[in-house]
Amino acid sequence: MNDDELVAGIRAGDATAFRGLYADHKATVERSCAFFLGDDPGMKEAVAGTFKGAYAEIAVKGKPDLPLKPWLSILAVRYCMPVMERRRLEYLAQARELEELARRVPVLQEITRDDRERVNFMVRGEIDDIPEPHKQILAMHEMDGLSILEMAKRLNAAWVTVLSRLYNARLALRDRVKAQFKA
Amino acid sequence: MTPFLGDALPELSVEEISRLARQYLAGDPTVAEAQRLNSALQEDPQAALELLTRMQEALDQAQPGGMSPAEWQEVDASVEAIIREMASHSTGPLLRLKVWLLKHSRQRAKAASSPSRPLARTLASLAGMALALLLALGLAYAFVAHGGLQRIRSLHLHLSLPHLSSSVAPPAKPAPAPSPAPAVAAPTAALASPAPAAARAQAMPSPAPAAAKLGAAVRAEQPPSSGPLPSELPPVTPMPSGKLNLEQEP
User: Fold this and answer.
1) What ipTM is given for this predicted complex?
2) Residues of chain B with C-beta less than 8 angstroms from the C-beta of A71
């Protein structure tokens, strides 16, 4: 079935047409989401949400302005964005938590007044003792100053995958610093 | 899906879209930038497509994996749930009727677009063209038979009178015209804008000699054999005495 027939069938409530849409475009949607979400658990949510959203939009608004393939890719990214935003906000909250932690380390207070720099010094002080794979990703971000995008390219990984790895590495760093602080 | 709020935005340029995409993916967007990016994705399909392309280009060196078979099974189950929901929203006989109509219309569309009846379609299109041609000929005949050409010619003369009179009359001193020339300016006043009409009226010499010369010029311009019979002429607005009257034309 071509795009017009798929859309007309879905509007008429034809389950075969919707199955056809899913079969024809599931790889496109998966690929669009995988660039951003990789192996994140939110991937399933985004892919299923994309097809649910596609059904709702076609039923209500009819044929989209764009051909189905690019239209579904855009829809997929729309459904990826909440997952990406969730991970990004978790990452930002963790950054603030680390800044707060670094503010309580007397040595770091003497070195600089900048919160971001204090965290950087904290990472440099601990990096040799952090186990892999956390060490590599922390070094790329804090020592080499690479952005999430650059790390995704170097590691051949999806955007959220890099964000999650960095998050986990920082968790390991935080636990280590907290343990030393208590000691 | 968690709603993600964004402001309505003006159109984004390609450069701005590219910058927003990279800024977001670099992991360091401001709140406003994140909102603009999301608004572009939600509201403007062209901007969204550009943004998607830029984001994928930015990540093109990454080789993301996909979902595992187990994850696909979960997604398949979700899609089947949507299909069940679809079916429950439609009543049985109505759905069957809709699907039957859809298939029937598809078959008709295919039959119409297939080259299985080229002769019939060619004949039908030829008949349509012939009908249109006959209609056009009939309209043209009716137009000519009812003096349409003469009406156009007389209208043309009415319109060209001021121009003719100014070219015929000598470049006289711009005498103040107390009132616009009644015979010449009156027909044009309804058709031309007031300002040029008044200017032409001012540039004209006194009405009577100019109109007399104009009458001569018009008579000289009209070939005697080409004029219609007086009975075929359209009714002309009565003119003041001593002024040009087109009924005097040969």
Assistant:
1) 0.78
2) 45
Contact B83 A74 (CB under 8 A): no
Residue of chain A with shortest Cα separation from B79: A48
Q: Model-level pTM?
A: 0.57
Chain B residue closest in CA terms to A161: B64
Q: Give the closest-approach CA distance of B50 to chain A in angstroms.
A: 10
H or E element at residue B20: helix B14-25
**Residue A117: Cβ within 10 Å count:** 14
Minimal-distance CA residue of chain A relative to B109? A5
CA dihedral B148→B153→B158→B162, nearest 10 degrees, is 160
- What are the tokens at B156? 């043309």
Distance from A112 to chain B by nearest Cα, in Å? Answer: 22
- Give the model confidence (pLDDT) of B213-243 as tens digits: 444 544 444 444 444 444 444 444 444 444 4
- Could you give the count of Cα atoms lying within 13 Å of A51 in the half-sphere of its Cβ? 29
Contact A15 B98 (CB under 8 A): no
Measured CA to CA, the distance from residue B163 to residue B161 in angstroms comes to 5
B248 φ/ψ sector (left φ>0, alpha ψ -120 to 50, else beta):
alpha
Residues of B in contact with A50 (CB under 8 A): none
Q: Dump pLDDT digits (tens) for B141-187.
A: 887 777 766 766 665 555 554 444 444 444 444 444 444 444 433 33
d(CA A172, CA A85): 22
Residue A170 near residue A93 (C-beta atoms within 8 A)? no
- CA B246 to chain centroid, in Å, comes to 39
